[in-house]
Amino acid sequence: MFLYVTQGTNDVARAKIFYTAALAPLGLVLRYEDTAELGYGTPDDSRIALWITTPFDASRPASHGNGAMIAFRAPSRAAVAEFHAAGCAHGGVDDGAPGLRPYGANFYACYLRDPDGNKLSAVCEAAMP
User: Strands of 37-41's sheet, edge to edge?
Assistant: First the structure.
């Protein structure tokens, strides 16, 4: 449905540390980098699915939206936990530990905030073997 998603940051270097670590368990890698933005995607696709960038309107800082969140598909419950742990270890803040949620029988998710306060989630909907 979406071609790509863009998330604002006020510190590209800090965001790189956080996103590179947190997205690795989900199979996403840094595919592009310059002083104003980072681009993440899958290793087998040349396109960028997630852009982390300083605001185009440089007169105002990046800010997070109240009620806005990006949810990433995780291949396993272990990947959800790894995403959460890596994010928290690299400048993120816990906003909901990994666990089942009431949104479906197998909706296993976690929530955290990146260093700029943007809310993120990783979700695995696969049934336990």
Answer: 5-8, 50-53, 37-41, 29-33
